[in-house]
Amino acid sequence: MKCRFCKTAVSHVFADLDFSPPSNSYLKLEQLNEPETFYPLKIWTCSSCFLTQIDEFKKHDDIFSADYAYFSSFSSSWLRHAKEYATAMTARFKLGPSSRVIEVASNDGYLLQYFKEAGIPCLGIEPTRSTAEAARAKGIDTREVFFGSETGKALYNEGLTADLMAANNVLAHVPDINDFVAGFKHVLKPEGVLTFEFPHLMQLVQNNQFDTIYHEHFSYLSLGTVRKIMETQGLRIFDVEELWTHGGSLRVFVTHDTATHPLSPNVQKLLDKEKAAGMDDMTFYTGFQEKVDAIRDAFLHFIATARHAGKTIAGYGAAAKGNTLLNYCGVKAGLLDYVCDLSPHKQGLLLPGSHIPVVSPDRLRDTKPDYIVIFPWNIREEIANQLSYAREWGAKFVVAIPSLEIF
Fold it and tell me: In the predicted model, is pLDDT for residue 162 greater than 90?
């Protein structure tokens, strides 16, 4: 295997999570009699640029298919985050009716709807039909295409350039990261601004977030590595913010290397923080497997103990991270009764690998489980507040990451 950024031969295994189906490949009931494909979930770190990555076992086009089940708008905290972003960027970069905002991986229009409400022209780039159609239903112009250098050139030739480009939680999702970033160079106006948001690899390691590893995430990113990727395409990072999202993310502000946006001291401060953590040395990337296995053992011990005591266990949030946890731990239907999810696009389906049914949250009131495992631990407070009524029958909440906690 060669590094997808710098092409150096890669030999260090960061984590081996055995074999798993793609985390968003939910099943219909009639598919239980069909073969289910499991792919290696092994993560490597490049000793040259420190890009941590998975090989492309499951093809990019197959993962983001027409019936992709993830819709961003079903999380109230994520919508609030998107609205705050739109307000802040509009003020900071003085956007108005003569500006244009383009979002890559615009999903169901969760973000662009706020720019549209403000009267700012916008365009979404979203390859999955199900979410693109949801965005169009909100009146948001959406191109159903994968983004890269060819798409960037095509938009430029149409005269569709941007004052602001947003790319939230997509940089990790592309197998050809160099071609993907090259596309922005074509579309961004000379003084335009591009923002990327992505989970911070430092947080993944320090907080044992192994369940954020899945086949959709081809790369696991630090500021130092992302800066190198941008520089090879004639782009530069001029500011960075640390965010609470996804257990700890970065928002980097990028522009052309010839643009006049001043360099913020935030950039060097965070680079120093990564260096102090040891991210520029391979020793930082060793020992993670032992932490992963400790979480697995603790979670399985909880399930076995609760079941032995005659307790019932349900889950909440049919999230990709939950599927990574369940499949690595070998938890199947029967150990966990069901998983609730607000999204009607997931209800009635079965989780990949474990085959645990996904149901409406209404099921909780009917069955009154003793424990509710919250899989999207990054929004645990939001979910615990939504389900506060479960305390009426004495239910307790459970999270497995960064360590097992019952509350």
Answer: yes
Residue 41 lies in a domain: no
Tokens coding 28? 């219909």
For residue 9, tell me if it sits in a domain.
no
- Rounded to two decimals, what is the model's pTM? 0.90
Alpha carbon 329 to chain centroid distance?
A: 21
Residue 115 in tokens: 């720019």
Mean pLDDT, the chain, integer: 95
Residue whose C-alpha is closest to residue 50's, from 234, 284, 266? 284
Do 261 and 231 meet the contact criterion of CB atoms below 8 Å apart?
no
Place of tokens 């983004």: 147
Domain that includes residue 348, residue range: 288-406
Closest to 110 (Cα-Cα) out of 146, 89, 86: 86
CB atoms within 10 A of CB 301: 11
What local confidence, expressed as pLDDT, does residue 24 receive? Answer: 87
The enclosing domain of 321 has a CATH number of 3.40.50.720
Give the tokens for residue 234: 């004639």
Confidence of residue 57 (pLDDT cuts 50, 70, 90): low
My answer on whether 197 and 244 are in the same domain is yes
